[in-house]
Design goal:
Elements lengths: L1 H18 L3 H27 L7 H6 L3 H26 L9 H21 L1 H7 L2 H28 L3 H19 L5 H4 L3 H24 L4 H28 L6 H4 L8 E7 L5 H8 L7 H4 L5 E2 L10 H9 L20 H8 L3 E5 L14 E3 L10 H5 L10 H4 L12 H13 L7 E7 L15 H30 L5 E7 L15 H9 L3 E6 L5 H4 L9 H12 L3 H7 L18
Parallel strand pairs: 1-5, 1-6, 3-4, 3-5
Antiparallel strand pairs: 2-7, 6-7
Helix pairs in contact: 2-4, 4-10, 5-7, 5-8, 5-11, 7-8, 8-10, 19-20, 23-24
């Protein structure tokens, strides 16, 4: 009964406030609404009408693409709504301060639950990426931050009597919390551009302002708010448990068929993967480059390059894990084969033949080490600064409220040597080892090239020119790195094969839809360099190409190698069943005469 009376009172006050709005303000709101509708209509219509090779007029004038235009328009709308809400609340007298112990208590509890929701929402990434030894320090640090934030909020609410200032403080703390524990750790937010970031921060502020008004405006309903926020804390945990249960049900194919393949010859096998190592033909075509720097290194006498090579699955996580599962149809595209947390066909074959297995990635983006590899670098058990969540949030000191800086005191001394040089050193150690079991190593290097950024616009001359400059600089470094590895291999004291590949293409088709230009889409994203820099495996080029119909993939190259080395090749033939997302022979880019 009390609630219905209060609701009637609020409606009456709202009606009165609307009537009392100055005519100029009403006119402004009307003009703003019409302007917003027209702008959104322009963006949406142009989005559907724009051709794949065209740039819209607004971008040509101001350098803001359709995506940026969409978020800027909505950002302005959200800001207008925020001011309208504050004005309305102030007009109807609902922007009163939390001036009683009970009202302050309600706001503090809600603020704490917002903090817990933000922390829980990123828990999946933390558990995936951080070693067990860091879980206690990171959550202890967040507990300290929560206590400090709660005390500060309590003191400010007690000292400040202005409802608008209290609203500002509550909204600011909540927005910072969600940014520090969620937004700044996500790739879509970090690389989405200023317009997207500003929009989502403003929209978060809008939700928090509404929550502030609701908690203070309807005291009897705040328990419902607590219930909803408490349940939402459990939702990510329930989602993780459900995902785990689903994964358990999706069992991989029978691993025994690969474990039963016996190799009569066991050379060392080394794979070096460079990020975005695109074929020179595709780089020349899509970036209009006359000569790609690493062309020379790939033309060396001892180098055998495979024509029309593609990465089976992209991007990086999917590509590296696809190689470990040999692109087999009955082994789902899980993302934990590379780090050794899940048994894979490649691992099973190698392990049963006595190979030492080593994989490596510069950061812990692919997770922590599992039992199915012998060595995995980097070691996530000691590197806070090298963990993916800290590297990805490197631009923001607010990430986890500074834990990446404070927590680094727990690190061991970090090597100052670049990851590419570390990989060369690791490879040199393997090649110069006089004795020991056969070795399989697979290391991915993020530098020196790298794909286009998320805000890259296909067919835009400025975007293309900027990335071309980046590509040429990186390609020159890649050329030196490939030559260094080739030279290193020439002094090997062990029988080995060294395979060079890319994880995916340069991704200049970023704003192109697959159905608009599928040839461009597939060639650009899947086309990679695939070559042997050194081959003393005893297998000829023809034997390595056994499973390559008219195109090559790293998985097919490895299958050809194992068939050549196998005691009974037909056993491997029966075991293999490649599963590829496209019929790559329809997208060949390098026709061998």
């Amino acid at each position: 009964m009390a609630d219905s009376k209060r609701l009637t009172f609020i409606l009456q006050k709202t009606k009165k406030a609307l009537i009392n709005i100055p005519s100029k303000l009403r006119s402004g709101l009307l003009i703003g609404t019409v302007s917003y509708a027209l702008c959104m209509l322009y963006v949406l219509i142009y989005h559907w009408l724009i051709k794949v090779h065209q740039i819209d007029p607004i971008y040509e004038l101001f350098g803001v693409g359709l995506r940026g235009q969409f978020y800027l328009i909505n950002l302005l709308a959200v800001i207008a709504i925020i001011f309208a809400i504050i004005f309305s609340l102030n007009q109807i007298g609902l922007l009163s301060p939390a001036d009683t112990p009970r009202s302050r208590y309600r706001l503090i509890v809600v603020s704490a639950l917002i903090f817990l929701n933000a922390a829980v929402s990123s828990a999946g990434s933390v558990f995936e990426d951080m070693s067990d030894r860091f879980l206690l320090p990171i959550y202890a640090w967040l507990a300290i931050v929560l206590i400090f934030q709660t005390v500060i909020l309590f003191l400010l609410l007690k000292c400040i009597r202005s409802g608008i200032v209290q609203l500002f403080i509550f909204t600011l703390l909540g927005t910072i919390t969600i940014y520090a524990l969620n937004f700044c750790l996500t790739s879509w937010f970090r690389t989405g551009g200023m317009a997207l970031q500003s929009f989502f921060l403003a929209f978060t502020a809008l939700l928090l302002i509404s929550l502030f008004a609701f908690v203070l405006g309807r005291p009897s309903a705040w328990k419902n708010v607590i219930a909803v926020l408490s349940f939402s804390c459990l939702a990510p945990l329930l989602g993780t448990a459900l995902n785990y249960s689903t994964n358990k049900q999706r069992e991989s194919g029978p691993i025994e068929r690969f474990a039963n393949i016996e190799l009569s010859s066991k050379p060392d096998i080394h794979i070096v993967s460079l990020d975005s190592l695109a074929p020179p033909e595709l780089a020349a075509q899509y970036l209009e480059i006359s000569e790609v720097p690493y062309q020379e290194a790939l033309a060396e006498q001892n180098v055998e390059r495979f024509s029309n090579a593609f990465a089976t699955n992209v991007p990086t996580k999917w590509s590296l894990n696809s190689v470990m599962r040999l692109a087999q149809s009955d082994f789902p595209p899980y993302l934990d084969y590379f780090s050794g947390r899940r048994a894979s066909p490649l691992q099973a074959l190698l392990r049963e033949n006595g190979y030492q297995i080593a994989t490596g990635f510069p950061i812990t983006y692919l997770g922590y080490k599992g039992k199915y590899v012998d060595t995995y670098k980097p070691d996530p058990s000691w590197a806070v600064r090298n963990s993916a969540i800290c590297v990805l949030a490197n631009a923001s000191p607010l990430a986890f409220f500074g834990f990446c800086n404070v927590g680094s005191i727990l690190d061991k001394q970090e090597s100052a040597e670049p990851w590419s040089d570390q990989v060369v050193d690791i490879l040199q150690g393997y090649l110069e080892r006089n004795e020991g079991p056969p070795i399989f190593s697979y290391h991915h290097i993020l530098d020196p090239i790298g794909h286009t950024s998320l805000d890259y616009i296909t067919y835009d001359p400025t975007s293309k020119a900027e990335y071309t400059e980046t590509f040429l600089s990186g390609a020159d470094k890649a050329n030196k790195l490939i030559r260094k590895i080739s030279l290193l291999a020439s002094h090997s004291v062990r029988r080995a094969i060294i395979i060079l590949t890319g994880d995916h293409g340069i991704w200049v088709s970023r704003t192109v839809k697959q159905e608009d230009d599928i040839r461009f889409f597939v060639q650009d994203r899947h086309g990679v360099v695939l070559a042997t820099l050194h081959n003393e495996s005893g297998c000829s080029l023809k034997e390595l190409e056994y499973f390559m119909p008219n195109y090559a993939t790293p998985e097919r190259l490895l299958a050809g190698l194992f068939r050549c080395l196998a005691s009974t090749p037909h056993t491997l033939d029966k075991a293999l069943d490649f599963n590829e997302p496209f019929d790559f022979q329809n997208y060949k880019y390098h026709i061998v005469e």
